[in-house]
From TrEMBL:
Lineage: Bacteria, Bacillati, Actinomycetota, Actinomycetes, Kitasatosporales
Domain of life of the source: Bacteria
Protein name: Alcohol dehydrogenase
Pfam families: ADH_N (PF08240), ADH_zinc_N_2 (PF13602)
Enoyl reductase (ER) domain: residues covered: 10-304
Gene3D superfamilies (UniProt xref): Medium-chain alcohol dehydrogenases, catalytic domain (3.90.180.10), NAD(P)-binding Rossmann-like Domain (3.40.50.720)
Any GO molecular function: oxidoreductase activity
Length: 306
């Protein structure tokens, strides 16, 4: 099969198109023929060795954890799916090696759900990691109906899905973004504010009493701004600043969760969750996709088509 791989830890320039054997399919797994693979910052951070202290990696290393595709065949005791099923998932295993930047990937059934019928392959591939991150973070701060929720980096891959999930849960959402993305946030149901100096004051103009909960999807001081706007520190969560726990908030790391992913499928098929695909590039252009991701200006998601 064709895949994008690294021979050692490296960067975008080290990515190569290679021929590799078809992956083995362990018990409880299915073989998925990949239609599209989502690109996430963790992909290039993993490739640079950023997760080496906490996760083993094997080489050649195929990056990628997001997938949308068709079940090709099933392993032992994987009766949840059958050949021909359209699925998507956050295919993170206990070690990194056989990722989704490939024509085929073996995926534990615990990482998958049925693909939303309302989304095309590219859109579906943009959901799993970002959508599960957003939903898990919202749950950690118990955000729900009647709450006012502040979302930092609301126009990005995680933030744009977080806005829609929060709105679907009945929350009022205030989202930070550059002015060029304000109309985009309004289309998702959020009230936009410009990030940067004076952010707390701008949020208070919209919510004079502060906000009920805040989600940090960007880092760079967003936690401290959030803490100044909430009544309880335990209603602040960050995916970017681990020290948030020392300040009474939550540090969130996404997990594969088939039930949560199925919930996102329901939202998508009900028209409550849409995916803005900023760039859809061929698999062979993975290096370009990484450079776009590293620039940090992407609205919505970047995906690779296979």
């Amino acid at each position: 099969m064709k895949a994008i791989a690294l021979e050692n830890y490296g960067a975008a320039d080290d990515l190569k198109v290679v021929d590799l054997p078809e992956p083995k399919v362990a018990p409880g797994e299915v073989l998925v023929r990949v239609k599209a693979a989502g690109v996430n910052p963790v992909d290039w951070k993993l490739a640079a060795g950023g997760l080496d202290p906490v996760m083993d990696a094997g080489f050649p290393l195929i990056p990628g954890w997001d997938v949308a595709g068709v079940v090709e065949r099933t392993g032992f005791d994987a009766g949840e799916y059958a050949p021909g099923d359209e699925v998507y998932g956050y295919v993170r295993k206990d070690w990194a090696q056989n990722g989704t930047y490939a024509e085929l990937v073996s995926a534990p059934v615990r990482t998958l759900a049925k693909k939303p019928a309302a989304l095309n392959w590219q859109e579906a591939a943009g959901v799993p990691l970002a959508g599960l991150t957003a939903y898990r973070t919202l749950k950690r701060v118990a955000a729900g109906s009647g709450d006012t929720v502040l979302i930092h980096a609301a126009a990005g891959g995680v933030g744009s899905l977080g806005v829609q999930i929060a709105v679907a849960l009945g929350a009022r959402v205030i989202g930070t973004a550059s002015e060029r993305n304000h109309e985009f946030l309004r289309s998702l149901g959020a009230e936009p504010v410009t990030y940067g100096d004076g952010l707390a004051d701008r949020v208070r103009q919209l919510a004079p009493g502060g906000v009920d909960a805040a989600l940090d999807f960007v880092g760079g001081g967003a936690v401290d701004v959030s803490l100044s706007l909430v009544e309880r520190a335990d209603r602040v969560a960050s995916v970017a600043e681990g020290e948030v726990t020392q300040k009474g908030g939550h540090y969130v790391w996404v997990r594969p969760d088939a039930d949560d992913l199925a919930f996102l499928t329901e939202l998508a098929d009900a028209g409550k969750l849409k995916v803005h695909v900023e760039e859809a590039l061929p698999l062979a252009e993975a290096a370009r996709a990484w450079r776009l991701s590293q620039a940090g200006r992407t609205r919505g998601k970047i995906v690779l088509t296979v």
